[in-house]
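Hi L.,

You mentioned the student needs an example of a multi-chain input paired with its predicted structure. This one should do, with 655 residues in total across all chains.
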Amino acid sequence: MTLGTHPLYGPVDDVATQAGHVGHPPRVGFFTDTSVCIGCKACEVACKEWNAVPEDGFNLLGMSLDNTGMLGADSWRHVAFVEQPRRLGRQDGGVAGLPVGPSSTSYAAGVVAGRLRQAERGGGELGTAPLDPGVPGGGPPPPGGADRMDFRWLMLSDVCKHCTHAGCLDVCPTGALFRTEFGTVVVQDDICNGCGYCVSGCPFGVIDRRPTDGQAHKCTLCYDRLRDGLEPACAKACPTDSIQFGTLDELRDRARGRVAQLHALGATEARLYGDDPDDGVGGCGAFFLLLDEPEVYGLPPDPVVPTRDLGRMWKAAGVAALALAAAAFSVFVEGRR
Amino acid sequence: MSWSGDGSREAAMVPPAEVDTYYGRPVLKPPVWKEDIAYYFFLGGLAAGASLLAAGADQTGRLRLRRGTRLGAVGAIGLGAIFLVRDLGRPDRFHHMLRVAKPTSPMSVGTWLLTAYAPLAGTAALAEVLPRRWRRTTLGRLVDTAARPAGVAAALAAPAVAAYTAVLIADTAVPAWNEGRDLLPFVFSASAAASAGGLGMLVAPPEEAAPARRLAQYGALVELVASRQLERRRSPSVEAYLTGDARRCLTRARGLTAGGVLLSMLLGRRSRLAAAVSGAALLAGGFYERLGIFRAGVASTKEPRTTVRRTPQAPART
Ligand code: SF4
Ligand code: SF4
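Structure written out for the whole complex:
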């Protein structure tokens, strides 16, 4: 469906032109290659530092080494940690055969999941507000089999996807969210009135309202740095080039090459996420190379911009409204008899 | 892990590890909206339905029905607007809604709808409360003459006021709302009709309230059918309507709406008291309907499985 010249769904060649920018720079984004992420969280720190993002609580979450938990108003980069009893490609995890007992990861994960459920926003407050799930301290893992199995650590530095069809931007009623000349999606702090619509408009659970100032915040892809010709702070700080910044076209080429390379190395589970302009959000400006299903990292497997169905929704509403009008009319016509 | 979106605070048993979610954490951000928004949905629908009744009452000379519904409409929309502004993170910036008109944002569309509707409903209501000695003044005469066209115009805008809020919540990533997108407008519009019918029965004597009774009957019937359909879809998010606080609200809504409308059909014509009781029941029913739908949406965002929907499962029926 389109609205005027504004398509609400499907691939878009040039998002910045569509948003009214003339003579704009090429669309930029991130390619986050999780296969080389070492979980140092330099990106989280650099982002907080550069953008003066306030702290969101210092709690132990019991999610492996992840004590951020989720993207939110006060976490614009979030490194996810997943421990799995399997090998990465032909890598030797170095623990096979050692008498260290089974991994306690699934036990910890179960405890955390149960506690998050009791939280007011079910754990959705992570990244925005402090949350202490009261995870039991680091005792020895529960007894079990003698050998630890193969082991791999999945790490992913998550970030706002800067969607081609951004749910947050589509629904924002004040114009606070806008599409920049770089094709990114940014909130204007002096406009946002904290209506909270964007929070529910984002199919990735990225943007959130900060309780202290009542306004919505998320990654700007370092709009200020881009305008000065600098790369975003997180990409700059990443020591392994897991976070790569560049023009989107180039990043997509590079990502395809990297997948082929990993497949050749035996990591056949390597796949791209968010790179496809035919997906539910028209492709992401920030996309990822994953080594497992997206949901394992907390990403939605099939995100769809809610405005895809806007036309259909208004049609249903139109029929319902007409029916209401007709009913109201008819009750008085009958009343005359 | 089993679904337990019942909002209970009892300590959960340690569930088995979840392989397909990230530590059982939600994928989506649960709405930051407070239940104020549900109150507004009810009040906005009530106002819209009341304006429709008021215009009809005006045309057919039912003066007490007209007075009650005109005042009810303006009261409801006024109170609703307060809830809307209160829920903003920055209430002092509520007027930023008026700096753009954005067709892709149902909230923007709704803002402009309300901006048109509320003053019209207000003008019609003003004529009802104008003190006698002011009627002679030029301004008073102006209000008096403007009341009828304003009331008609308010009634023309009213159905959209009742229905747009359904689009507002459907156009989100909230699974229980988004997946209900084809039905929610019918639930909302019908619920608006039932509530307004209830108001009409409360404020007007039975001999004037026949249209209100009929509107309540139509509305209640469609509301009951449409909200039942909403709970019969095959989707993981449907669980959110069938469990917990949402379920309790929706059950209550159904009982109050059905009871109210039955009472009005049996005794509404004869007894003012019975009419008032059924009117109040219908209003409460409409309130719980919106609250239940609101809570179902919030609950559905807390459950990662509704978003991770590669393998849709048939919901467990209760
Ligand atoms: S919809 Fe979500 S992921 Fe996409 S641009 Fe907006 S906040 Fe970022
Ligand atoms: S909270 Fe701010 S940025 Fe988000 S939709 Fe509302 S006005 Fe726009």
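You could point out the following to them. The pocket of iron/sulfur cluster (ligand 2) is lined by residues A 172, 174, 176-177, 187, 192-198, 216 (CB under 6 Å). The mean pLDDT of chain A is 91.

Best wishes,
N.
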